[in-house]
Model the fold of this input.
Amino acid sequence: MTNAFTTRELAFTGICSALLAVCSWISVPTLVPFTFQTFGIFCTLELLGGKKGFFAILVYLLLGAIGMPVFAEFSSGLSVILGTTGGYLIGFLFMAMIYYFSEKIILHEKLWFRILILISGIAFMYLFGSVWFMLVYTRQVEAISFAKVLSICVTPFLIPDIAKLALAIVLTGRIKNYVKI
Done:
């Protein structure tokens, strides 16, 4: 038995990488604008699972790293990944790993458990990204407290991310009824 992806799995992985790019380009203009990037992550993990989802996210990040404008505001490059908000992007990979390890637990079949895992994953992504932000910002600009980073980079996105999670759960639940991934 091989661990290689089938052609179908590769195609869906590529589609989800493209979904992440499109979702990162969609910006909702509010007091603090937000994108649909996390919506794309939630959908990717729910549809593909942790392993294939990890690779879809990795492809997305690699495309951005080599210069394809796949990140928010059509940005790209290593400067984005290594910049203040790059920790949140890298944190998406940790979300996929958390989801992957949760798939080994029998409760993973339960919707409430998968929602809890997705919330845990985004909480870890927030933590990792916020620490990264604080370190890079302190090195490049000036010292900033962790509380200030949370107020700027996490708090404004909590309610939108919960809404995106709910939307992703409903949408992927419907998609799974019609498409075998």
In short: The first helix runs from residue 7 to 25.
